[in-house]
Design brief:
The chain is an alpha+beta fold and 144 residues long. The chain is built from five helices and six strands, in the order αβααββββαβα.
């Protein structure tokens, strides 16, 4: 996993504060996506005093600078995670357990560019999140 210390911010300069370092360190230790509230609780459990509004601000600035991936779960909740892949990619997300798989989809990239160009759009961006059941949850459901 990458961290802010290893990879400087892509966007505007931000002060490196104790709170920012705590959020960054906690994200480095997690493998799954986490909501702002879940991360805030984790920081408290670890003894890091970071207010909920600060966690929101830090996560938003990290997302703006491409340091974390952002997903919107099926219920609309926004979650964050450091991703191993440092270029544009997409996610498969299990609706049941939350397991996430990073996938590349060149056909989606080409389609997005063609669709935008066909309508006169430039500098198009997109997100694709595919929701379903992972193999384990599918097997568990079949075994009921």
């Amino acid at each position: 996993m990458r961290s802010e210390v290893e990879h400087p911010r892509k966007g505007s300069e931000q002060r490196v504060t104790r709170q920012r370092l705590a959020v960054s360190a906690a994200l480095d230790e997690l493998e799954d996506f986490v909501s702002t509230q879940e991360l805030h609780r984790l920081l408290g459990t670890r003894g890091d005093s970071v207010s909920l509004p600060t966690v929101y601000r830090v996560l938003q600035s990290m997302a703006d600078d491409g340091l974390v991936d952002v997903l919107r779960r099926g219920d609309g909740e926004v979650v964050y995670r450091r991703c191993a892949v440092e270029h544009h990619h997409h996610h498969l997300l299990c609706r049941n357990c939350g397991r996430t798989v990073e996938v590349e989809a060149p056909a989606v990239e080409q389609w997005a560019v063609r669709t935008a160009a066909a309508h006169g759009f430039t500098e198009a961006a997109h997100t694709v999140e595919i929701f379903g059941l992972c193999p384990e949850c599918t097997a568990a459901k079949a075994g009921r």
